[in-house]
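As a next step, we paired sequence with structure tokens, yielding the entry below.
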Amino acid sequence: MYHVQGMDSRTVRAKMKRPNARHVKLVEDLIDPEQTIGGALRANGYSESTANMGLAGVPKTALAMLLEKSAPKLARWQTMTTKDYKALVLARLSENVYEGRDGGVMSAKALGGIKELAMFQAESQVGIVIVQAPGAEEVAKLISGDPETE
């Protein structure tokens, strides 16, 4: 079911409350991508101070249910390729630019910055400065070993 450090699953289940209708409705609201955590808590009758706590305000029973319900979605992310992740980052950034907002930009930038994707790196290498590139004739002489250019 789920794991809590230092306890086996039987002990955890025994210590948790049984889910009630309020927990079920809260989990449904938390899964909704348009709903914030605080908004879901407020909509389900939790106090303003509990809603302001965010994820810490969600009851453990509801969190366990949320984990069980969202596990199939986690499997989808494991099957994505690097190309899929790049497309996801670019789509998210493009959508935000089009809509004129910054929602999720830092998450998209963090995902694009991982080593496998390396989407946000400088185009030029630090320490290499080309003042004037040699012409085609000079390059041909250098390659052929012409003593005039050495």
